[in-house]
Amino acid sequence: MTDRLGDRIPAAPEPTVETVGYWQAADSHRLMIGRCRTCGEAHFYPRARCPRCLSADTVLEQAEGAGTVYSYSIMRRAKVPYAIAYVTLSEGPTMMTNIVGCAADDIRIGMPVSVVFVESDGGHRVPMFEPAVIVAE
Amino acid sequence: MSIRNQACIAGIYEHPTRNAKDISLAALHGDVIAGALADAGLGKDDVDGFFCDSDAPGLGALSMLDYLGLSVRHVEASESGGATYLSQVAHAAEAIAAGKMKVAVISMAGRPRADAAAGGVAPRPFPPSTPDLQFELPYGAELVNEYALAAMRHMHDFGTTAEQLAWVKVAASHHAQHNPHAMLPKVVTVEEVLGSPMIADPLHRMDCCIVSDGGGAIVVVSPDIAAGLKRPVVKVLGHGEAVKHQNGGRIDLTFSAAAFSGADAFAEAGIVPSDIDYASIYDSFTITVITQLEDLGFCAKGQGGRFVADGGLISGVGRLPVNTDGGGLCNNHPGYRGGMTKIIEAVRQLRGEAAPQVQVKDCRLALAQAMGGSLGTRHAAATLILERH
């Protein structure tokens, strides 16, 4: 498996009135998480009511877009193999995603990754992650 | 109030078919309900409670009650995937203890193979309004790669190996060879599991359960009804049910809701895991068994791989006989749902009616464990503890 992952076109997300802001932000290359203004906790996926304290005072907050791989799996039973993963964001919450921009064999749990926004099949862009580029000082 | 000793399982029936191309979904329900009632020695007019899941045809239970001409005073159409039926046994016991009914039938059936052959759609499509799926489907999330996420993390944290996962399948195949109805009755080796095609790392094809048609039914009765029956009955001793989900992004895939359902069930039954003589553990994938064995307390967290290795689950030779019918990995997994067959094999063991080659000697206490949904995202778990009468 030395093929570079990332040639798969993701299915278009189907937003509801509650989540359209998240997906519009992805179109402009911003990753959003949910933040509760009552308890202060971050959550993912973003939603109208806080899953920590049930407050309705939640807002979208732009995430840094950096995280580490919590777990991953290469789906081999597909026309184009792809890597599903959970990435733990620097803000705390862990989100489901795909790892792209590297070979399947290069993915490791704990690996630092950063967000990219991949065009979907006729819909909003989808946040995915690729190995973080370490810039030498 | 506890359901301990408040109800008995008096009848069971597992449909012998694994491919129902000539049997409708309603007829499958009819077959298993008639079969379970005959097994109990009860008739249609004795039934005053009915339980089904959301795959039963029609609105809730209405069409099935109409189809079978049943008249009941307690009805429940509930849904927690493959765990539904274990919860329903307990809910039936609660209703019996409350005097709401005396004879309940719990029915499940499915025909995914026949539906697929006829050009059917993917299993149980959820509407786009489901709040979580828009954050998962674009990433190609399916059951198999979601469970694989849990397996990969388990290996990372605890050193669990692909060979240990494979032992779960090997044990199931050793049992399935003695089941004339098993879909995959051939004994397989660890090497054969590891040599089967990789589906979603680290899960090979043989780490995955089968897809089959069929179903099963259970008759749950009050102790006074049970006292008048000729066939051996099984007492309901304890139950627990719980849901685990993504918790707003605080995700830990190394344990399941069985950690909660199991603790509640053991507390209600007043016993500990080492008292259990036989266990049915839902085996959608090999990792499902390892995770639940740990969560139920049969071994410490992280030790599940070592527990199942080297024939640990094979009846007569292992540490704990598990899924002696061949389980969902080899025998039967009707409608993508595992719980019904898990209860049925536990009852067979307690009655001494399992295949002779896998029957546990003097089997007095059994546990049935099932999960519905996905270990990798959100799922329900239910635990039942049963005792020979």
UniProtKB/TrEMBL annotation, chain A:
The organism's place on the tree of life at top rank: Bacteria
ChsH2 rubredoxin-like zinc ribbon domain sequence ranges: 23-57
Domain (ChsH2 C-terminal OB-fold) ranges: 62-118
Pfam families: OB_ChsH2_C, zf-ChsH2
Gene3D superfamilies membership: 6.10.30.10
Name of this chain's protein: OB-fold protein
Organism: Hoeflea marina
Automatic annotation (TrEMBL), chain B:
Domain Thiolase C-terminal: 240-387
Cross-referenced Gene3D superfamilies: 3.40.47.10
InterPro entries to which the protein is assigned, alphabetical: Thiolase, Thiolase-like, Thiolase_C_2
Superkingdom per UniProt: Bacteria
Pfam families: Thiolase_C_1 (PF22691)
Keyword Amino-acid biosynthesis found: no
Molecular function terms from GO: acetyl-CoA C-acyltransferase activity
Record keywords: Transferase
Protein name per Swiss-Prot or TrEMBL: Acetyl-CoA C-acetyltransferase
Organism, as annotated: Hoeflea marina
Classification lineage: Bacteria, Pseudomonadati, Pseudomonadota, Alphaproteobacteria, Hyphomicrobiales
